Amino acid sequence: MVKYRQILDLHFKSVSQRTISTSVGSSRNTVSDVITRAERAGVSKLTDDMTNAWLAKLLYPEKQAVEKGYYPPDWEKVHKELQKKNITLKLLHTEYSDEARSSGKLPYAYRSFTEKYNLYAKKHKATMPIKRKPGEILEVDWAGSTLSLKDRENGGDMPVYIFVATFPYSQYSYVEGFLDMKSSNWLTAHIHAFEYFGGVAESLVSDNLKTGVIKPVKGEPILNESYRELADYYQTSIVPGRARKPKDKPSVEGTVGFISRQIIAALRHYQCFSLAELNDQIRLRLDDINQEPFQKRPGSRKIVFDEEERDYLIPLRQPRLKFSEWRIARVQSNYHIQIDRMYYSTPYEYIQSDVDVRLSKDVLEVYFKEARIASHKRVYGEPGQYSTNPDHMPDHHRYFLDHTPKQSIEWAETIGENMTIFIRTLLEQRSEKQALTQIMHIRHLEKRFEIDEMENAAQRLLLATHNPTLSVYKTILNRNKKRADAKGTDDRLSDKTDESYGFVRGANYYGGKK
Length: 514
What we know:
Number of strands: 16
Low-confidence stretches: 126-130
CATH class of the largest domain: Alpha Beta
Number of domains: 5
Distance between the termini: 142 Å
Oligomer: single chain
CATH architecture of the largest domain: 2-Layer Sandwich
Radius of gyration: 45 Å
């Protein structure tokens, strides 16, 4: 409160306004305004009856009028309206001011309005001010403490890691234990939490753990692809907390400590051999915690969640997400990638490229710059197995892959009957490997000779011997080629030249024939 009497007392003693401002703790503008109003009111000296309250009414009568004739806000209504999405205290003050003026009364200024609301909220609602909206955020994390299971084989202890999800508004929580903190369990925990709550929050606030965030880049962290896929499927967003900033998710951090005391500590001596049995015990204690009455405000976590928050959640999408695992792999020189010691082909054009691999239970998909370039059925069993799509191979590799006795005979049938007999004879008289090697050389001859030439050579070979060989076939083929070329040359030489053709000068031109 402004010390009007002390300001005027120092002023009448000829103290400077700067010194008065420092002494009473008010701004120089306030000091100057009080002195000016006192001079207008004719106050030249102070008397005993001029108290600070009396001077306030004298110098600032408009403030007293507002205090006497202000329009009283309905703070309970303001508190409930503020819980709704997109509603701010500034908007509520504007609506209150319009309502007050329509009633012929004066409204509180915005600063006074916020101060009085904060006092009301602190006194009656144990919240000052409301920072979270219902259904706006779900905070998730792994608890630092663990529980344990008994190993049936050796009787030792196996650690059980505790997942915690909490709504900051209602403090309604979900807790579940897992045998590890890998990506698959991290995603499973989220799905189970969504099903427990019956809906999804607008955003998920997680820690910067590797199962959720690959790289915590400031401002735009790089998310784990499986985690991003889960968020897209359930139509929510992921907002990772800053590294080493637990206040970014204070609700879940507080709940982790509370859960550690109420659940983990309570079950520290509980012995069981089944994770499902342990989670049943966790669920019983979790339900008790969610239904336990608040100490400083009416209701419980479950009551506040059911009455004020559940309706704001995003509806749970069905069916349940069949989540997948994403990995990064390098395409090897044999145009295959290695996943779990199994090999899957990709188009050979991507050799030495890094690709994204999406793994589900039955299917493996390969992506390059968000475009799918390959898809395979998952291979299980003995390590070292290959899943190869012939379309992914270079032409010469595919040619070699197709080089079998059956395929060789099919090729020979496209050439002719004699070639088919020739190929069958090679396969019958020689070992398969030797025969296929010779047949491959024969097929390469197709680049130099016509089909008719190859068929005619095969016919002559079969007439000449019952034990045809590659060398004899090539000799016949080359000999026929030379004969055809020689005959073609003779035919060209025997053609008559048109003497009227201007560029050919014969005997008539030179006068040799008269």
